[in-house]
């Protein structure tokens, strides 16, 4: 949680400095956000697959196969970076042009997007090596790495954006450079413990197949975020660029309050996978129950902040009165979704950890593809204020379906054992 808190802070600080540099840059960050989410989806999702498979092998006492799984991660990190960087370099102009009509914002999206994508190798390797270490219970070094990377980013942001001292004034390009340098710094810290020897190439096919069988639900879940945020941006583009900016700023603040969920999603997967493989069903159910209760208690903080001082939160980044007006209303409506969102996000990773990839994927598809964008499109026809109710309606429906799936599983049926929710 501490590491993710720092990560959230440097995302917010990025927006703070860019918001003070130019309003167009702030909108550009909102537009490029889905692409950054897609990178994270591939990197973290693959890492989760490696993490879960390693935890499985450790749970059955096979350390050799656990280490071989980790060794395959190096190849996967390089392959993902190379393909992603190559594709993004060529599609970035097209992506920018369909996201906004402002030539100034288009230019800034291309500059920022190409830098953070082409030099994203630090993100991919750090994500894989971090998950390798977490599978063995080593949370300390990944935490230190992410904190160090964040501080590097935070320190470089004002220097490169505004051109302080002997540093050149680079504007939004400076923010992008600061981001990738921070990612590379974090990767270097976890490299020694996270980089494992590769197994024989003949074993790659077997391990990659199992890694992506386990990691695909997470990749799908994270990638779906990219698709639905991109879809919501296109819907809001029909209203104004300020509406797009307001949505982007919501996601910046959301990151802070979602730290408990992000941390628990990371931590409960190997715990549940290990105990499920070891036959300890009771601890699996208890882990789910405790994470849901804790998540709901902590998310109340986000609800209170969004309801009490939304104008302050929006005004931190933007001085545009229209952005503040739209965003303040949006935050109050979206806050209603925070409590049901806990279970709508934790149920998929629970099913993923016990090997129920279909249920995990089904919940993710329901939330992000079946509900979010189509529902947002329908509600947008009734006006911008109605559009924001997309969020609470989606989370309530997803949670209800997730609970039904859980109640019909072996965990939900065995009420007498005392470990259901």
TrEMBL record:
Belongs to the multi antimicrobial extrusion (MATE) (TC 2.A.66.1) family. It comes from the Bacteria. The keyword Ion transport applies. It comes from Ruminococcus bromii. It is found in: Cell membrane. It is a multi-pass membrane protein. This is Probable multidrug resistance protein NorM. The chain crosses the membrane at residues 31-54, 75-98, 110-129, 141-164, 170-190, 211-236, 256-279, 291-309, 329-351, 363-380, 386-406.
